Amino acid sequence: xxxxxxxxxxxxxxxxxxxxxxxxxxxxxxxxxxxxxxxxxxxxxxxxxxxxxxxxxxxxxxxxxxxxxxxxxxxxxxxxxxxxxxxxxxxxxxxxxxxxxxxxxxxxxxxxxxxxxxxxxxxxxxxxxxxxxxxxxxxxxxxxxxxxxxxxxxxxxxxxxxxxxxxxxxxxxxxxxxxxxxxxxxxxxxxxxxxxxxxxxxxxxxxxxxxxxx
Length: 214
Hints:
About 50% of the residues lie in helices and about 15% in strands. The chain is α/β, with parallel strands linked by helices.
């Protein structure tokens, strides 16, 4: 394993910061290089520490998380920004993405979804918490072909792909080999006419797949 990925935390609740640090550093993949509890300190801290990823709360003393994401995106275009908040309103989530966030996770599901979200955004994808995905992009259909063309196994695999699971994790969940997962995934992508996980996520949202297995 290479050097841990540097992460900066911005949240005004010390207990949340402690919990996030423990979760992130448990397996050595991430290293928390700093944290701040307000807008101004967070901005200065990130600019000084130059982390790869920043996890930002939505409500901060001195300013909003949305405004901070926008300012950090302008200052550091390659920075990965993950919103972690209690708020579930669709307009609020959309504002975070418009500001430049790469992903959005609810605090109530962080223990289950945070590491998966980080893996997604590090891979160049967008992550939307399954708990609010249907609220964010209702009815959008990015792919041109119907889900009925998929076999049951192909659908199960791409549902999990859309939710951010790796081929190895899908292999364990479905008790099939990794090569078999890759085959089902390739067939499903071909039938749906996509090679992009982003368009697959939009399709999954329109089908109501998040958080539900067939």
